Amino acid sequence: MRNRMIAGNWKMNKTYTEGVVLAQGLAKELADGTGDVDVVVCPPSVDLKGVAEVIEQEKAPFALGAQNVYWEESGAYTGETAPDMLTNIGATYCIIGHSERRGYFHETDEEINKKAKALMAHGIVPISCCGEPLEVREAGKHVEFVVDQIKKDTEGLKIDDPSKYVVAYEPIWAIGTGKTATADDAQEVCGAIRKTLAEIFGKETADGIRVLYGGSAKPNNVAGFLEKEDVDGALVGGASLKADSFAAMVKAAM
Ligand code: PEP
């Protein structure tokens, strides 16, 4: 059985000080625990240490995730962060392949694949994002577009424990726009993702991999997505920036 997951992507929001306050607020909101729901908070890299300290001090029921990683171990890669640096600071998850990184920073599927391998070699769980732009959706080619991303992003990966690899389907046209995909839209693509994962890794492994939906997910719509067979949770942007709205989404998933 797959535990549901609610992951918050703070993107480039919250200073160190603001991040600590938000993490403290979330720890308070979730003080009674999160049941079987795995909760992950992904702050900007300069906030990771502060949030790690809050998690430890408050015994907060959420895990720490980064928003990006570089695949090399160390060296002359100015501005980058190695997997070992994330492990050392207490991060156990890392978002990769977000459409903003693919778009603004020209990240390719080949790079995303290298990042996944590097993270998994260090015991960090990738939250690997995929999703189609509006023109692909309008042309009716969204399923094949996303399936192609999945194949490239997972090429050569070895998944021994399916709970240690997470996919997030985020249609680009629904991110930060207030336009959500319908729950049926999400199921169509998340179902195709699971089918593709089954072809690559076998049914048993695919059945254990969490597939999240992301794109203007909010407290008032998340339950509808979670009812769908192949939607195991949400990757949340805007609504993760307030402790009460993010906590409400976690509670909706419990
Ligand atoms: C995201 O960027 O991962 C995201 C889902 O953002 P939002 O919830 O704000 O659409």
Description:
It contains eleven helices and eight strands. The chain is α/β, with parallel strands linked by helices and 254 residues long. The chain has a single domain (69-246), classed as TIM Barrel, CATH 3.20.20. It has an eight-stranded parallel beta barrel with strand order 1-2-3-4-5-6-7-8, surrounded by five helices. Strand 7, helix 10 and strand 8 (233-236) form a beta-alpha-beta unit. Helix 1 (16-29) runs parallel beside helix 2 (48-58) and helix 7 (142-153) packs parallel to helix 8 (183-201). It is globular and about 45 Å long. The mean pLDDT is 97. The structure holds phosphoenolpyruvate (PEP). Phosphoenolpyruvate (PEP) binds at residues 9, 170, 175-176, 214-217, 235-239.
Give keywords.
254 residues, alpha/beta, TIM Barrel, binds phosphoenolpyruvate
In short:
With 254 residues, this protein is α/β, with parallel strands linked by helices. The protein has helices at residues 16-29, 48-58, 83-89, 99-104, 109-121, 134-138, 142-153, 183-201, 203-208, 222-226, 243-253, and strands at 5-9, 38-42, 63-66, 93-96, 125-130, 166-169, 210-214, 233-236. It has a single domain, classed as Aldolase class I (TIM Barrel, Alpha-Beta Barrel), CATH 3.20.20.70.
